[in-house]
Design a protein that fits this description.
Layout lengths: L3 H17 L6 E4 L1 H12 L4 E4 L6 E5 L11 E5 L1 H16 L2
Parallel strand pairs: 1-2
Antiparallel strand pairs: 1-3, 3-4
C-alpha cells in the first residue's frame, strides 16, 4: 500500500482541524484493520491509542475531555478508501500490456 504517507497526512489534517477549533486531541481510537495498515505511523504518534474492534478500517482522533459531550470534539478517518484505490491501481497495472 502506497498510503502510509497519505494516512499520516489525513491524521495530521484531522489533528490540525481539532486544534483550530480550540481542542487538544489526545487520544486515537483505532479499528484492527486501521491498526494493521498504519502500525508504523502509530509508533511515532504522540496520542494515547486504544484498539476498538467495532471501528474496523476507521480511527477516531479526539479530545478526551469533550468526547461524547460535543460533536466537534472528534474526527473519524478511514484507510478503506485508500486500500480500494490502491487495489484499483494494481488491477489497472495488470491490464497494461
Amino acid at each position: 500500500m502506497q498510503g502510509i504517507d497519505e494516512i499520516k497526512d489525513i491524521l495530521a489534517r484531522a489533528i490540525a482541524e481539532l486544534r483550530e477549533e480550540g481542542l487538544e486531541p489526545d487520544i486515537l481510537l483505532v479499528g484492527p484493520a486501521f491498526l494493521e495498515h498504519s502500525v508504523e505511523l502509530l509508533r511515532d504518534c504522540k496520542l494515547r491509542i486504544y484498539k476498538i474492534e467495532e471501528l474496523g478500517y476507521d480511527a477516531v482522533v479526539a479530545d478526551s475531555k469533550y468526547l461524547g459531550q460535543i460533536k466537534r470534539a472528534s474526527r473519524r478517518i478511514s484507510v478503506e478508501p485508500l486500500l480500494k484505490e490502491s487495489e484499483m491501481w494494481e488491477e489497472l497495472k495488470k491490464l497494461e500490456v
